[in-house]
Design a protein that fits this description.
- There is one protein chain.
- The longest helix has 14 residues.
- Helix 1 runs antiparallel to helix 2.
- This protein is of the alpha+beta class and about 140 residues long.
- The two termini are about 15 Å apart.
- It is elongated, with a radius of gyration of 16 Å.
- The chain contains three helices and six strands; from the N terminus they run E-H-E-E-E-E-H-E-H.
- Helices cover about 25% and strands about 40% of the residues.
- It has a six-stranded antiparallel beta sheet with strand order 2-3-4-5-1-6, covered by helices on one side.
Length: about 140
């Protein structure tokens, strides 16, 4: 049992081999839905995708899925070969599976930044009781 609300992963990746996989609503949506399925999450709403046009440094696609367990989001920059990913869940998940799934879609890449945080330290003093009740309702 965890003493926190959940795991929060943020990744910044660069040097993406398959830049075309970062470009387009269908590509971004497919990546997100496959990713959340592989880490054992359930989609509540989405994916919702949108395109930002303009300068190459800013142009790209963003996508988000709202999960029963929280959310997953990605912001892509195809011309730069970069992306930012954010996965937050009250259900435990494998960071290695996230990386493997990204590799399946994007080919080789390098991780520029990775943060894995336990979220929810602000819970009641009896966090074990509170978390147990929360998990029973999920």
């Amino acid at each position: 049992m965890t003493d926190t609300y959940g795991l929060h992963l943020t990744l910044r990746i660069a040097g993406i081999e398959r830049r075309s996989a970062l470009n387009g609503a269908h590509s971004v949506a497919d990546l997100l839905t496959t990713l959340v399925d592989r880490i054992g999450m359930r989609v509540l709403a989405g994916p919702l995708t949108g395109e930002e046009t303009g300068d190459p440094e800013r142009r790209g696609w963003s996508g988000v899925v709202i999960l029963y367990e929280s959310h997953a989001a990605i912001h892509t920059y195809p011309e730069l070969g970069e992306a930012f990913l954010d996965v937050f869940s009250c259900k435990d998940f494998s960071v290695a599976t996230v990386r493997e799934t990204l590799g399946d879609f994007l080919g080789d890449f390098c991780v520029v930044e990775e943060h894995v945080l336990d979220r929810g330290h602000h819970w009641d003093a009896d966090v074990r009781r509170e978390m147990s009740g929360w998990l029973a309702r999920r």
